[in-house]
């Protein structure tokens, strides 16, 4: 379990994450939604110790992330950041090999190679493994980054807006891949998402943030409601039940 207790971050006079406490489970998909500037990325960055906190603690299966060596934390959780632009001219395989760094320290063992092969196959990238990253489409590149975190092979996988710049087919492909990871591998996937309907259709739990605080937290049917969504986004939604999922419409 990831236990977040009273996590706080301010920039000057603005408190952008304000005493957030929550627990993230050992398996399943948890999506964090909320408007621009709500503090979603800041929260995720503190949980993954990319960013220090002004106050509060984060423990991952009992390990204090702020007090532990990076290598130890990197064996517990992996993170896909929002900005995955890559200037280095590396191949898909080389990118995925980076995921093994916490295990290999740069020297790939046979076990590492097997993990890389498996991650490539799982993400349907085996045929593209020798292609330079910069020659891939947005969807292929995103899958390559997902394969990199998969190769890291941690229980907790945290992704900040992994559907950025993807068309519907590729976004659906990435969400299905993450669902499979949660179900078949028993991973705990935590995502920041802007598309509330992907969050609704694919998550076990949705955490809705606004102004640095969690304002709703529960299964999709309790968060994807006109009332809750109005509180989060300040606009009108209609919500429809479609094939068992709660789908919000907000086109006007
Ligand atoms: N380095 C920084 N310096 C000053 N303010 C910052 C910094 N990083 C983030 N902020 C501010 O903190 C607030 C929360 O930002 P954050 O990126 O966490 O929001 P978000 O919910 O992820 O937003 P988005 O949906 O736009 O990505 C915003 O008001 C942002 O301007």
TrEMBL record:
It is found in: Cell membrane. SMART domains: AAA (SM00382). It is a peripheral membrane protein. PROSITE patterns: ABC_TRANSPORTER_1, ABC_TRANSPORTER_2. The keyword Nucleotide-binding applies. The keyword Transport applies. GO terms for molecular function: ATP binding. Keywords: ATP-binding, Cell membrane, Ion transport, Iron, Iron transport, Membrane, Nucleotide-binding, Transport. Gene3D superfamilies: P-loop containing nucleotide triphosphate hydrolases. It comes from the Bacteria. It holds the Pfam family ABC_tran. CDD domains: ABC_Iron-Siderophores_B12_Hemin. Residues 2-236 form the ABC transporter domain. Its main location: membrane. This is ATP-binding cassette domain-containing protein. It comes from Demequina zhanjiangensis.
């Amino acid at each position: 379990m990831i236990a977040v207790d009273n996590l706080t971050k301010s920039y000057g006079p603005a408190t952008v994450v304000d005493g957030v406490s929550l627990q993230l489970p050992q398996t399943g998909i948890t999506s964090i939604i909320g408007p621009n500037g709500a503090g979603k990325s800041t929260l995720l960055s503190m949980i993954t110790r990319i960013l220090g906190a002004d106050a509060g603690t984060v423990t991952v299966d009992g390990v204090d992330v702020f007090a532990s060596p990076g290598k130890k934390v990197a064996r517990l959780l992996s993170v896909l950041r929002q900005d995955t632009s890559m200037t280095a001219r590396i191949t898909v395989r080389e990118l995925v090999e980076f995921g093994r760094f916490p295990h290999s320290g740069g020297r790939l063992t046979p076990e590492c190679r097997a993990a890389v092969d498996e991650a490539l196959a799982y993400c349907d990238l085996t045929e593209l493994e020798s292609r330079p990253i910069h020659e891939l489409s947005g969807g292929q590149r995103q899958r390559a980054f997902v394969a990199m975190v998969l190769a890291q092979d941690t229980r907790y996988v945290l992704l900040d807006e992994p559907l950025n710049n993807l068309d519907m087919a590729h976004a659906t492909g990435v969400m299905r891949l993450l669902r499979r990871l949660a179900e078949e591998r028993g991973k705990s996937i935590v995502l920041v998402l802007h598309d509330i309907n992907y969050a609704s259709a694919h998550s076990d739990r949705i955490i809705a943030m606004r102004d640095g605080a969690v304002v709703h937290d529960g299964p999709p049917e309790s968060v994807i409601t006109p009332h809750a969504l109005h509180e989060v986004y300040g606009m009108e939604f209609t919500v429809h039940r479609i094939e068992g999922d709660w789908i919000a419409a907000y086109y006007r």
